[in-house]
């Protein structure tokens, strides 16, 4: 589902962010991406979501070779990759419902279908009753769950999360990760960047470790 | 749990796709209009500036149009009025007219007898009492002379005028067309002005709309970024801004139309009074249907182009580089 082959990413200002990364993830696999700050975790996720292109190497996601994907096809690729951010990236002036509906609205889906799917997604993250609230009225954990609902509402085959629990206490973090596990059960491929090593160890999934832009470890889960 | 889509989504049928596309456009257009009305004061100011900018050339056009109509009604007036000596009688004037009709330069000759001139004068009003005091009709006979089109140039008219003055019956001759030609030249000048002013102010409208849309894009930067993250196409992101430009144009065009029409209504009273002093009626022509359509489509086009320029310059999308 996600395949990296000798991928390099170099920034003109910062030098090499990723060096010779190769790995493959199968459909329905869940994996963690760990490493210290600046090791290149975010960069790797950004490459998968085509927020950036690699300097060298091939990336194939969901059967698409991202190196040759024309610019005007990028939006369609992003619809197949749900992205979750540490800072949620919610629209502050829109309701929870409207925030979650955004990925469906941009595809031109009809009103009824949007409503049905948004409520299904909110139900999954346990926020069905808060659909009319604005993000600031929610707690940090709830806001992150809205972000997750937005990422999964289009039912993408790939889900990426960049430090999804960075601002949350351990109890809430655990809840979020349990939520991710449930997506994995239904066949979503998940890659989660985190530095919450204790949680990573307790969950026994495949773990990629990055260090200074290199893939230093790839431990198989159970 | 919702299952993810395993492969590519089922492609909708063409008719279905078209329906979705149309729905998106209608929704987008209405939503954009709603957003404009959410901030009535800034929207109103932008629309007013566009309206005033477009009203200027439109008003000038209406002015030129009315002046042309007025000039057209004067084409029938004599090119030269030949005033005969006071002692020439109506009986003597008739053979003179016959003689003049044979001149190659002259197309038509009308005699305005003393009596008819006096009656006309009376009808003007205000002169009745003065005329009552007179024992005799003080007015001379006037021969109105219409030259052939081929002899209507100013120099030729002057030659004709001199030729007429050499007649022994002639007292003096007044040329009526020189000023008409000057008037035509002024009209041409105004028309050039309409084009120039229209061009300049049209550019102004482009800049106003462009700047308004640019600010709107900057205000909604975060929203645009998030829409791109969740897979909005650039067409989808541009659409509301282009619609906003078109709405600004349409509302501005309507404002311009309204301003011109209001100005005409206010002016009609004084124009009617002026026209009645010349014993004529002069209904002011406003912007007709085709002119209104030109103003509106032009203003919509200006709005669209202005917003398109802003969108092109400021919506580069979030990479990838």
Care to give the gist of this entry?
The complex is a heterodimer of chains A (222) and B (321). Chain A has seven helices and ten strands. Chain A is an alpha/beta fold.
Provide an overview of this structure.
The complex is a heterodimer of chains A (222) and B (321). Chain A is an alpha/beta fold. Chain A folds into two domains: 1-80 and 157-222, P-loop containing nucleotide triphosphate hydrolases (Rossmann fold); 91-155, no CATH class. Chain A has seven helices and ten strands. Chain A has a six-stranded mixed β-sheet, with helices on both faces. In chain A, strands 2-1-4-5 form a four-stranded antiparallel β-sheet, covered by helices on one side. In chain A, helix 3 packs across helix 4 and helix 4 (111-124) packs across helix 5 (140-152). Chain A starts with a strand and ends with a strand. Chain B has 321 residues and is α+β, with helices and mostly antiparallel strands. Chain B folds into two domains: 30-73 and 190-314, no CATH class; 78-175, Alpha-Beta Plaits (2-Layer Sandwich), CATH 3.30.70.3040. Helix content of chain B is 69%, strand content 7%. Chain B has helices at residues 14-38, 40-74, 90-101, 114-123, 128-133, 154-165, 178-219, 221-229, 234-277, 289-314, and strands spanning 80-84, 106-112, 142-147, 170-175. In chain B, strands 2-3-1-4 form a four-stranded antiparallel β-sheet. The longest helix of chain B is centred in the last third of the chain and has 44 residues, at 234-277. In chain B, 24% of the residues are buried. The chains are: A alpha/beta (222), B alpha+beta (321). The A-B interface holds A 49-53, 63, 72, 74-80, 83, 89-91, 102-103, 106-108, 110, 117, 120-121, 124, 150, 152, 154-157, 182-183, 185-188 and B 1-7, 20-21, 23-24, 222-223, 225-234, 236, 318-321.
């Amino acid at each position: 589902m996600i395949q990296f082959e000798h991928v390099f990413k170099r920034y003109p200002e910062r030098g090499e962010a990723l060096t010779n990364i190769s790995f493959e993830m199968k459909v329905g696999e869940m994996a963690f991406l760990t490493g210290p700050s600046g090791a290149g975790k975010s960069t790797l996720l950004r490459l998968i979501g085509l927020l950036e292109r690699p300097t060298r190497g091939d990336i194939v996601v969901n059967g698409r070779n991202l190196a040759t994907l024309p610019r005007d096809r990028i939006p369609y690729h992003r619809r197949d990759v749900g992205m979750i951010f540490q800072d949620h990236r919610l629209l502050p002036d829109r309701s929870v419902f409207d925030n979650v509906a955004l990925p469906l609205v941009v595809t031109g889906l009809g009103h009824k279908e949007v409503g049905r799917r948004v409520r299904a997604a909110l139900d999954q993250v346990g926020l069905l009753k808060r659909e009319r609230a604005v993000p600031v009225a929610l707690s940090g954990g709830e806001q992150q769950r809205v972000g997750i609902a937005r990422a999964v509402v289009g039912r993408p085959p790939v889900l990426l999360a960049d430090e999804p629990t960075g601002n949350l206490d351990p109890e809430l973090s655990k809840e979020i990760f349990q939520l991710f596990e449930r997506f994995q059960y239904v066949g979503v491929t998940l890659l989660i960047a985190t530095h919450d090593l204790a949680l990573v160890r307790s969950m026994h999934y495949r773990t990629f470790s990055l260090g200074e832009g290199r893939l230093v470890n790839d431990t198989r889960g159970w | 749990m919702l299952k993810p889509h395993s492969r590519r989504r089922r492609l909708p049928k063409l008719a279905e796709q078209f329906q979705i596309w149309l729905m998106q456009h209608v929704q987008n257009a209405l939503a954009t209009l709603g957003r404009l009305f959410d901030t009535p004061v800034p929207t109103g100011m932008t629309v007013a500036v566009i309206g005033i900018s477009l009203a200027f050339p439109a008003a000038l056009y209406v002015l030129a149009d009315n002046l042309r109509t007025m000039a057209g009604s004067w084409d029938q007036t004599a090119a030269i009025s030949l005033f005969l000596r006071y002692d020439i009688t109506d009986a003597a004037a008739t053979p003179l007219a016959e003689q003049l009709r044979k001149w190659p330069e002259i197309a038509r000759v009308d005699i305005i007898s003393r009596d008819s001139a006096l009656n006309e004068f009376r009808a003007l009003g205000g002169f009745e009492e003065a005329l009552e005091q007179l024992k005799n009709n003080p007015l001379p006979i006037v021969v109105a002379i219409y030259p052939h089109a081929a002899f209507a140039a100013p120099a030729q008219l002057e030659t004709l005028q001199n030729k007429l003055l050499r007649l022994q019956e002639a007292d003096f001759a007044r040329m009526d067309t020189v000023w008409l030609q000057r008037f035509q030249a002024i009209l041409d000048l105004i028309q050039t002005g309409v084009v120039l002013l229209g061009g300049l102010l049209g550019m102004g409208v482009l800049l106003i709309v462009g700047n308004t849309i640019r600010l709107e894009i900057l205000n909604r930067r975060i929203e645009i970024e998030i829409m791109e993250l969740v897979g909005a196409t650039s067409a989808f992101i541009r659409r509301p801004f282009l619609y906003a430009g078109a709405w600004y144009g349409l509302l501005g065009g309507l404002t311009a139309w309204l301003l011109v029409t209001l100005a005409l209504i206010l002016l009609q009273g004084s124009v009617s009074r002026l026209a009645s002093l010349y014993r004529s009626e002069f209904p002011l022509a406003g912007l007709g249907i085709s002119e209104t359509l030109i103003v509106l489509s032009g203003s919509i086009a200006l709005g669209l182009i202005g917003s398109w320029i802003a969108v092109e310059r400021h919506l580069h999308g979030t990479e990838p580089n």
